[in-house]
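Hi R.,

Here's the chain you asked about this morning:
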Amino acid sequence: MTRVKVAAAVLNQTPMDWHGNKQNILNAIEAARSQSVSLLCLPELCICGYGCEDAFQNESLARTAGQVLQEILPSTNDIIVSLGLPILHRNRLYNTAALVVDGRIAGFSAKRFLAGDGLHYEPRWFQAWPEGFCDTINFNNEEYPIGDMVFDCSGVKLGFEICEEA
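And the predicted structure, written out as tokens:
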């Protein structure tokens, strides 16, 4: 039987504070590593911050979030980390969780159920991903799976429920 130590980190992220948000993520990864965590779950949209509101509609936001993800990758050796970020795919914006395994992107799980009541306006900015559908995405000149999927990490199956999906 494979043993996996799972941890979740709560981060105080600020919308579009790229440097500060990245530093908070790197600190959480290092803290998890120091406690022998195998899988670290970070918050929804943790790279850009949740409250970007209409700035989500600017393509540069998703592009910058992708660049920050690339900068974080070297710090994920010997650990599995889920990181939230917006991804532009086929001219539509999705709220995703990137699964990073040992310094490499394994793929992107896209949110299916968007929060659209009270304070939340996710349907204004994001598309809901169709249930059971998987595709591929070219991200930084490499192909990765994206969609509603289950990942296999050395025999451990991982799936995502992002906020409303739980």
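The longest strand covers residues 80-89.

Let me know if you need anything else.
M.
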